[in-house]
Amino acid sequence: MPAGDGTALADRLAAQWRSAGVTDVRFAADLDELADLVGGSTGPVVVSGADLVAHTAVLRHLVTSPVGPTVALVLTDPPAGGRTTVREERGQVVDAGPAHRLDGEATGIFGGAVRVGRDDLPALVAAARAAATGRLADVAAGHGDGGPRVEPPGPAVDQVFTGLTAQGVLVFAQRVRLLVAHRVDDESGLSGARAAVAEVDEDRAELRLSVKEKDDFFTTYFVSTWSPYVTKAAARLGLSPTGVTMLSVAFAVAAAALFASGGRLALVTGGVLLYLGFVLDCVDGQLARYTRNFSAWGGWLDTMADRAKEYVVYAGLGWGATAAGVRYGWALAIAAMTLQTVRHMTDAWYGVLHDEAARRPKAVGTGGGGGIGDRLNAASTKVQADTGSLSYWLKRTVVFPIGERWALIAVAAALFNQRIALLAVLTWGVLAFAYTGALRTLRARWMWVPVLDTLDATLHRDDGPLAARLPVLRRPGPLVLAVLAAFGAGALLVTALLVGADAGWLRWAVPVALLMLLLGAAGAGAAHNGPLDWLVPAALRAAEYVFAIAVGVIGQAPAWLIFGYVFVLTLHHYDLVARLEKRQPAPPLHAATLGWEGRSVLLAVVAIAGIVSIGLATLGIYLLVLFVASVVLAWFVRPARVPAGAGRSTTI
Description:
This protein has 26 helices and eight strands. It is an alpha+beta fold. The longest helix has 31 residues, at 329-359. Keywords: Membrane, Transferase, Transmembrane, Transmembrane helix.
């Protein structure tokens, strides 16, 4: 069809794809030619139909989407002309095909364009070959070309997409919001779509799109209402998202220093700087989305900076509270950091569990319909869909997200003092942990989807060489053993706090707690396929942290040194979580970190030897040097060895 400006619609669309960042645009005459083009490609491929009318920004968002290697455009238009309908869960396309064949209600239609990552190209070739011969059903069943020929309905690009998803390829959904994208069948549809595109200011819409569609209450109403103006200014100044991240770190460090110094003016100023630092923390992501400047390094740095900033603020509060005469100021900071890290570990692994359940919907609910898991799942879905309601905001706020944490710290410190700020964080954190832990446990038992066995369990447990050499205890299961390890460490800490560190016999209680700790390591070789085994990494983090704190208390090490040692451990573990989210391999020097059980054995030795402070300082510095060296190797040395231009070719 003519596009209305003297060119054919397909030619106009091809020009848009080039403007969107595609390096090599080809027209495929048929599905066999498409398969040949894809088979010869060395980088990600965008496959697009010629019936798409959209803002160029929509296409650019698909090409640059950071959510995953394979991303499909999904529209809310009603199904027509044999186009493929899709069903999504948590941003993933979990089913695609005719509406009557979906395992559940359709949530949209395929938008006629899909970006396929390099690792998924063989599946794309297989889908194109199968669609060309009418044997898509065989590809879905893994039967190759042996089945009878069936002519599938609908456009060719829809057939290819259906075949791609039928092979189990993980496909993320790219929704269109504020901008316009439609698939057209005739000239009247084309005219209406072009008019809709012309009505929208593309740049203004992109700036609004830089703000997350669903965020937490404080961020939505006290940050995102004005942060886009900062984002626009940062873009005009040529700032990068990484540069803004560094500015937010500077603001947080300044706030921590003011909290440490004390005094009403310093506390109020620190609260203001903390708020502004959080605004910048939101702006870096908004700037990345607005400028489409995404990078794996930037995503990793943002994740690590968020946690480091928060814990530096805890350190400032602990220092200031101690200086103000609070006996347990540093202890409150250590407790807040430990609680928050263990919470984050459960959050990360529950997200993995939920994503795995979304990819395997038929495996969900094996406990039977009508149970508490079904009711909780239905209630959660209903609340999430009721955007803006009181129940929606309560659900998002009660879990104590980062915006609410920073707001609470800023207000409590400015109006009261450092001790109140830490106590407030701990109180809300404990309540949030209890709430989310109880509900997630019930839902996880209902889902019954193992996740730890689908990944490198040794890496994400953070096991060292000692765990590999211990006898394997398959009963009562890795989670029970990890919980027992944490219980032993907790009992040692409570005993030390109750009887006092002056009790000389306490150092000989350390080996007993260590033996219980090593029970958790003995479960490393067992299958992690229980419905709650996703909690194992969090339980092991709790065991190691609490054991290290207990050793520090028994050895009468300075509280700030104990905080520093646990802080270095959190950096190491957050690095593993960031790699989990991106499915990246282990850090370059991971083996040299000795594993959680190896580090605990060393601490037990220094406790018995009576040189705890020296041991904590030495081991902490050693781990920090390893962490920095791993970062340099992973992000600067090894990527530089990748041949220039590798994986950059994109074809339509």
